[in-house]
Each structure stands twice: as structure tokens, then as C-alpha cells.
Mitochondrial 2-oxoglutarate/malate carrier protein-like (Neomonachus schauinslandi), 127 residues
Amino acid sequence: MAHAVVVNAAQLASYSQSKQFLLDSGYFSDNILCHFCTSMISGLVTTAASMPVDIVKTRIQNMRMIDGKPEYKNRLDVLVKVVRYEGFFSLWKGFTPYYARLGPHTVRTFIFLEQMNKAYKRLFLSG
């Protein structure tokens, strides 16, 4: 559930903010190119925000028992141990393949959303 919260919050907020930034720059108009670029930015932000949550989730799922005790006590313990023993940036191991999956997914999602919004406005609000 934490993953879903982080992904949705990061995607929606970063999409809206980056779209507004690109439109305000004067180099983009509200078209499919803008939506594509904005989606890629959103995918990048979402990847950066959600990877630590995924690392923790994966470590808990693959947790071993050591001397009859679980390897980790809770999610915070996983986070602390990963940072302590593997380094802060290990929370983003595998960033490129993760982004290669999430970037196109974000593009498809938001381009579809923008096209549906455009059709809705044209069909139902242009009275």
C-alpha cells in the first residue's frame, strides 16, 4: 500500500507541476509533445520517489531467519541497515531498468488521460 501511495502522489504531483513548468517556459503548447515530455519527467520523479519503498518491500519479502530470528524487525530497520551497510545510494540500485519500465507506463497513462479529457471537453462541454 505504501508503494501505491508514493507512486500515485509522485506521478500526479510531478505531472501537474512539470506540465505547468513546460507550458510557462513558452517552448511548449498543450499538445502531445508536451504531454510526452511531461510524462517522462513524471516517470523520472516517480522512479526516484518509489524505489526506496520497493527496496524495503523486496528485502522484507526475501527476509531470512538468522539464529531463529527474522533478519529485520520492521521497515525502518530495513531502511537503516541498507543505508548503513550498503550506502545511501543503494536505495536506488536498478534505477535504469525501473525507469525503463515506469517511464513508458507513465507516458501511456497520461497521454491517454489527456486525450480522454480533450475528447470529453469537445463532446460534452463545448456547448
Summary: The two ends are 41 Å apart (CA to CA). Residues 82 and 88 are 8 Å apart (CA to CA). Strands lie at 65-66, 69-70. The chain has four helices and two strands.
